[in-house]
Amino acid sequence: MPHAHTPDHSGAAITMLKVQPFGESSLILTTPATDINGRIADRHSAYHDNLSPPLVWTPVQGAGAYAIIVEDPDAPREQPFVHWLIWNIPGEATSLPEGLPNEASLGLVGGATQGVNDNGTVGWFGPRPPVGHGVHHYHFQIFALVERLPFDEKTPLADLVNALKGDALASDDLIVTYEAAGA
């Protein structure tokens, strides 16, 4: 039986491993955008329509806002590839719709802010693993925050992570997969 190719990856820690929430609440993130095996639908890939996936989570009492960071630690580079940074999602929210516009300020999501991804654009940049590189794992990390964060879209991931370290009530990590066609 042939051995499945597993990608070389960064080896660097994703955000979830750097932030320890101080609250006792649980938080569960899900998406209807995956199949039974956890593979995200093609329409969310940068090879296809590049639509941000719909997300649903359980509410956390006392949350003033939520932040979501999507990283691919299987990317062939030193650091995980950041596919999405979005924060200041209102504390009463429990979902995001599919296909958010790639704009820094999202009025339709209570003024949430989207940051610059590692493709150099604002908002969602869908999976685009190299052809033949194997299955990549995309970590959708959600954090319930005590309050909104005072950052704009140009805020680097490191600054966002430092703020999350002192502000996260709860977190969850939803892992979805994607492999380039022709692999």
From TrEMBL:
Record's keyword terms, sorted: Protein kinase inhibitor
InterPro entries: PEBP (IPR008914), PEBP-like_sf (IPR036610), YbhB_YbcL/LppC-like (IPR005247)
SUPFAM superfamilies, sorted: PEBP-like (SSF49777)
The keyword Cytoplasm is assigned to this record: no
GO function terms (MF aspect): protein kinase inhibitor activity
Protein name: Raf kinase inhibitor-like YbhB/YbcL family protein
Taxonomic lineage: Bacteria, Pseudomonadati, Pseudomonadota, Alphaproteobacteria, Caulobacterales
